[in-house]
Specification:
Layout lengths: L1 E17 L3 H6 L4 E20 L2 H12 L1
Antiparallel strand pairs: 1-2
Length: about 70
């Protein structure tokens, strides 16, 4: 069984790339990643979920049928 932890929230971010000319930048082609800046991070809630994997789900269905 897997335990999933999902955190939900909001933030402001900047995704920065460099380009050799304006046309490539406009089309989003051939860019080079530089950095991501994150600010004003706000965590609103966290969910923890138990998730059965496929083998466990199959075993549980066999128990119900048999």
């Amino acid at each position: 069984m897997d335990i999933l932890k999902k955190t939900f929230g909001t933030c402001f971010f900047q995704h920065i790339e460099t380009y050799s000319n304006e046309e490539e930048a406009l089309n989003g082609k051939n860019g080079t990643f530089k950095e991501i800046k994150i600010s004003n991070l706000r965590i609103e809630r966290t969910n923890i979920i138990k998730k059965e994997n496929d083998e466990q789900r199959h075993q549980n269905s066999n128990k119900v049928e048999g």
